[in-house]
Amino acid sequence: MTAPVTDLASGLPPATVEDRPRPRRRGLVSDTSFAYRMLAPALLVVGGVLLFPLAYSLWTSLNKVSTADLSMQFAGLDNYRRMFANPLFVTSLLNTLYFAVLTIVGTVGLGLLIALVLNERFVGRRALRTVVIIPWAISQVLVGIVWSWMFNGSFGVVNAGLQGAGVIDSYHGWLSDPSVSMLVVAIAYIWSSVPFAVLMYLTALQRIPAELYKAARIDGADALRSFRYVTMPALRYTTLVVLVVASLEGLLAFSLIYVMTGGGPGTTTSVLAWLGYQTTFVSLDLGVGAAIFYFLVVVLMVVTGAYIRLLRAPGREPGR
User: Fold this and answer.
1) What's the CA gap between 258 and 253, in Å, rounded?
2) 137: Cα separation from own chain's centroid
3) What pLDDT is recorded for position 317?
4) Both ends of the chain: CA-CA distance in Å?
5) So where are the chain's domains?
6) What is the average pLDDT across 132-145?
């Protein structure tokens, strides 16, 4: 049996390859530094596309812009003062909130209901899931045109169906009626946005472990209590995501209103996005128009921040 080899100077066993310090290679960077270098071009593009327009629009909202040569004269907060002094601003703000509430409730409620139905097993379920996605793939402009035809006061299929069923006596101009015009636009928007909510909820429902429902039945819970104590807690984060998207799109609604009503009749469907468009591109008041849009950005930031606080609230998703 051979004796272990020892270091002649110290009398200790020689260091293994793993114990010896590795020489530092020159020219190599850490993983974090390498990642930032690789992302730098994309970050520059994103910064140029997003940050520059935001900064430029903020600067525009603080200046009086000449439409002749687009020269700017610093005006401070005067554009914001004029924005708040505009009587249409309060009307548009209230219309925006009203439209957002209608679309949020409709999108979340119908999206959850349809997802619960599609989560069950029945003949034709896959085909129905495919059909549900179709409205989401159609552009907002085309949705507005189709629904304008459907609610047309002269030849719309809605009037034909209601008159045929005996609900109304004669054709009604839905989009020209101040009492229902906003509701009609909201219905068209909900029809196009519900598929997103359905897909989100359906994905979340399929991730809930079946053992949770079995345990609930063993404890004596009926279908309603299982939905309340198992399904709804599991959909908490999904609901918040759907709420964020529906809120942002509802507050920024423009395309459908532009196509279906043009802000009318009167100012019934005039929302902040429409008022900003009118002020900027029709009245050519670029400073006040930028102020309106920036006010809308602040509203969106407040709403998004509120949802993020809810998302960070204590609690975990069942089954995770």
Assistant:
1) 9
2) 16
3) 44
4) 57
5) 31-74, 87-311
6) 90
